[in-house]
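Need tokens for this chain, all 646 residues.
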Amino acid sequence: QRLAFGFHMALAPDELDAFRRLTRRVSPTLYRVQGAERPTPFVEDIAVPPQALPDFLVRLQNVLKAHQVTASFFAHAGHGQLHVRPFLNLGDPADVRKMQALADELYDEVFKIGGTISGEHGSGLSRTWFLRKQFGPLYDVFREVKRIFDPQNLLNPGKVIADVPQPITKNLRTTSTTTSLTDEQLDQPASGNGQQPPTNAKPLLELQLVWDGKLAATSNACNGCGRCRTQSPDARMCPIFRLAPSEEASPRAKANLIRAVIAGDLDPASLAKDELKGIADLCVNCHQCRLECPAAVDIPKLMIEAKAQYVASNGLGTADWVLSRMDTFARWSSRLAPLSNWFFRTRWTRWLLEKTVGIAQGRKMPQVASSSFLRRAEKRRLTRATRRTGGKVLYFVDLYANWYDVQLADAFVAVMQHNNVAVYVHPDQHASGMNRLAIGDVDRARTVAARNVRLLAEAVRQGYEIVCTEPTAALCIKREYPDLIDDEDARLVANHTHEACSYLWDLHGTGKLELNFQPMNLTLGYHLPCHLRALEIGSPGENLLRLIRGVNVRRIERGCSGMAGTFGLKRENYRASLRAGWGLISAMRDPAIEFGTTECSACKMQMEQGTHKPTIHPLKILAYAYGLMPEIKMLLASEGQELVVT
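Here are the structure tokens for all 646 residues:
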């Protein structure tokens, strides 16, 4: 019988790899389907004789129809194996009751056709209930083998061999829809007696972020599959877990923590305790788990909520207080820039900083500029809005380019103007506030976000696109601001915000990017920052550099840099940060790599930490290749290197 309607013979290595990865992409796609009904893998390992597969597919669909259940299934058809995942809402008792009956009937059909209920993944608790029926007298042989080799029943008790097998619904995790606390109840006062709560009663948990009733759904979306515990070099999942692979460091542990609060297993007040803050602090807001989780669980948002609960009750620690006010300290340092820069280079003052405020003395700190870019922009009249109707951007400068690397901001303006894009720098903009948000200082982050959204939204209405040279700022505006402010302006600004290299790459896609680059003889080691990766826009900076003839760009794919924003600045995190980023640092020491390049200012600090090679933003390389900023050649020559223009 002809089942196939077409075929493709894969011979190239890339094609072979694509087919190998195909089955691993199916399940993640299923878990990203929205709604209360989730793909539930309790009958997902069926195998039948290949010649009986067409008949069994009909029987399978009849069983599903009888129980009014939708399911997905895909097959290793060559050997008759099916992965069946019914869509059920495990918060609904009616759906839970369907599980046992559906499994009973479906497995009966499997046995009738001469198949097996565990073709690939073993038996475990979910199939032990059915194994005696499948194996008959052979089951007693299994029992005897178990008795001989494990007389005290220490190895996986209750699995495969069990005196009283557990039904498949025995070990289901609880969900908020079946327990005491829902999203709405968490944000409501507690009455304690079933009566209407008094107006002055304290809420069980005042949510700090915008959830729209989805806090429970977000935490429940984690199915505990353990993909976040991977150590695979092909993934970038959770740099902190890779560094210290304990369960509490895993992203799924964070979801379990919030689920326990929602389910009533943990007192909501426990979020204000140091023990749970220690778990929340193991999330550095890199967003890689959100990208690579099969169910796309937003662990970073859950952990910002947890940190915010702690800060609301206890305030900020000394180091966090300092790091949340970096823009203020940069402003004061800039007024006495030569003295400030000398101060931060001096061994004893750095030792004093470590002892007093917790900033690691071993960390190489950037030099503060004597004048902010916003002040320079005002002198250059960039703070005046243009009257052009197209090709104009509002440059969101953020902390690093404003106070520490004004040359980057100059390069951005030069490159944009070279490509006939007008640049407007709003004089009243503030730093994005991601440093505050990442440590749970949500109230102050919200204040900053509200100010920025107000002026950015007005600019968008005037036809501007918002462009950031800092990927963290772009991510903050696009993803975090709508979680802080529930209004249309925040969403409008988010939809019109771009990372700078992404904006330029889009220009190239429409044929509007100038390509009059000077050829250069240069080998760069490129690192893709986590926050740029989290924007899901590819690698535009790397792509732009490859347009320059003679430039050899080597992607350094060694995971997270380990800096993680302000994480790597703290004394207690310094060594962990270096261990997490050691792959990147060691790759930078390759003699063939002349300079590093990345879009992220924090990653730049880490890349320069263990090497004497400078790390340069792609925009600076573009500006130099356009012939716009010859001073970059002088900068690099001062580091003992030289850009060669051929």
